[in-house]
Amino acid sequence: MGAAAQLPKHVNIVEVGPRDGLQNERVRLTVAQKVRLVDDLTAAGIRDIEVGSFVHPKWIPQMADTAAVFDSIRRDPDVNYWALVPNMRGLESALASTVSHVAVFLSSSETHNMRNINRTIAESTEIIREVVDAARSEGCTVRGYISTVFGCPYEGDVDFDRVLSIGASLLDMGVSQLSIGDTTGMGTPLQVRDGCARAIEEFGTEALALHLHDTRGLALANALMALEVGVTVLDASIGGMGGCPYAPGASGNVGTEDVVNMLDASGVETGIDIAALLRISRQLELDCGATLNSRYYRYSQAGAV
Amino acid sequence: MGAAAQLPKHVNIVEVGPRDGLQNERVRLTVAQKVRLVDDLTAAGIRDIEVGSFVHPKWIPQMADTAAVFDSIRRDPDVNYWALVPNMRGLESALASTVSHVAVFLSSSETHNMRNINRTIAESTEIIREVVDAARSEGCTVRGYISTVFGCPYEGDVDFDRVLSIGASLLDMGVSQLSIGDTTGMGTPLQVRDGCARAIEEFGTEALALHLHDTRGLALANALMALEVGVTVLDASIGGMGGCPYAPGASGNVGTEDVVNMLDASGVETGIDIAALLRISRQLELDCGATLNSRYYRYSQAGAV
Fold first, then answer.
1. Domain assignment of residue B6, yes or no
2. Domain count, chain B
3. Cα–Cα distance between A162 and A134 in angstroms, integer?
4. B302: nearest CA in chain A?
5. Is A266 within a domain?
6. What CATH number is associated with residue A47?
7. DSSP sequence for B91-136
């Protein structure tokens, strides 16, 4: 039924666990535990790590210590350490922590954007424009998250033309990579394949990352479809930590172990040591006192790896 | 990166939960509970159900009541009710229960076959030949399971040529469909795609079913790859019940809800009511007092469906 599609030779993993993951876990880690987590991820071979966010602690108390974490991590010159910034104030805090890689974010659904950050998409876009300008003038690289691109828990279907239009405006501002997010795991394989193919056609492979959640168990199938059409950057969260507190029913970023295992098994290079990832998840379970949901991690804990 | 492959319009699900699933759960269901399970699966729109096995109760005590289950289920004329039979004695019991669809089985790994049924592959083949002859002369349709086709926990890699050779001999005997099994979930997406493509080339689409386990979380990704090369029959187990007691580290047939959800989401028809499947899994959890692992079922139980 058609020629077999090829997978890319190399895929880059953007580890979002320390921010997107931990932010949505009930337990809090200490600064020392977070520093160890980031240092261990660096040692495991991850080349992009989202360390934290500079968001008002009233909104995300779990991230209140991001500056302290940035102060103490061992910064490998080959690794990009990212911070999420919602506005100019956040950017200023990031710059004070000598952060050189910042991420901005908005939703492709008006309702989700309003519920998540209490602004219209147009209002978010203007704030992001100001942040990107200032960040670039300070020499920062900027990543742009667009969420709910394959479905919104409030609005249902999201018009992918709107995703492409938001993406184009972010790239015009000087954002270097878009991360399009299936924020509540509503995406389906053919939808993800088609959306990613369109985004790559518009923006090119280098400019696109895919951010998947495993809410309904489809994350790896969706990832595989994206790889088939040329996606080469995947966001993932160690142990499958995280979800979205503003999206009912959402839980679980796709686990880094799950993605790396599938890529390893498919002959796609990541440069990441999966055994090291499993040790990190085990440490996280001890630190959090919680059970992590990554499928491959759970398999490993059954004594099989 | 190559043209996008098409998925089939319709996929047939062979529900193996009442046999392969329950056989490997610690808890026992009563005959009445099993009958309800099979009747509910029939009502949900499943068209092939593996009801039980006629195996010596010393080996599989969970299946000792298969005759009683067959006696009491409501047999829909549009549904095939399968029984697994290991030998002539099993076949005789099946025939005595007016079973018209029987399944035979062997492994593509010598070591796995020896540990599972204490025979060489050649010995199993001769016994199967006798069973298939007798079954066909009584008007039965016969299905043939070949296990460990994408990897054996004892031997590691399995030569797919051996799988094809065993498959050819089963079809020569008069088996109408082969179910090739990733018994311990060792299969990887490209491996499954290539194996299924080769099997379809040898035997045709109609003769092939794929039996997946979600041990490492790859079952849906593997299923998707199989669909892309034309596989149209998938085995699945309600709630993700089951594993293989003779295969260390193995757990979890792919969940029927997970497969049906992915197919529904991809526009592939199954004729199955997924809401009914979720109700069946909920009843099974109550009957078993156990937690089922199907991803989509767990998602539904988070209050999201």
1. no
2. 1
3. 26
4. A249
5. yes
6. 3.20.20.70
7. HHHHHHTT--EEEEEEESSHHHHHHHHSS-HHHHHHHHHHHHHHHH
User: Splitting chain A (305 residues) into consecutive groups of 10 residues, what average pLDDT does each group show?
Assistant: 77 96 85 98 98 92 94 98 97 98 96 92 97 98 97 94 98 98 94 98 98 94 97 97 55 92 97 98 89 88 68
Catalytic residues of A: 244
- Does residue B227 form part of some domain? yes
Q: Are B4 and A2 an interchain contact pair (Cβ–Cβ within 8 Å)?
A: yes
Structure tokens at A100: 């050189």
Q: What is the pTM of this model?
A: 0.93
The answer to whether the CB of B18 falls within 8 A of the CB of B48 is: no
* B46 found inside a domain: yes
Partner residues linked to A13 by β-bridges: A234
Q: In sequence order, which residues have a C-beta less than 8 Å from that of residue A253 and are 6 or more positions away?
A: A16, A17, A20, A21, A211, A212, A213, A214, A235, A236, A237, A240, A241, A242, A243
Q: Which amino acid is at A51?
A: V
CA distance B62 to B82: 16
Task: Tell me the residue range of the domain where A275 lies.
Answer: 12-304
Please tell me which of the candidates B191, B193, B262 has its beta carbon nearest to residue A4.
Answer: B193
ipTM of this predicted complex?
Answer: 0.90
Give residues 55 to 84 of B whose Cβ lies within 8 Å of A.
Answer: none
What's the CA gap between A186 and A214, in Å, rounded?
Answer: 9
Please give the structure tokens belonging to residue A225: 């479809």
For an interface test with B, the pick among A228, A257, A261 (most B C-beta atoms closer than 10 Å) comes out as: A228
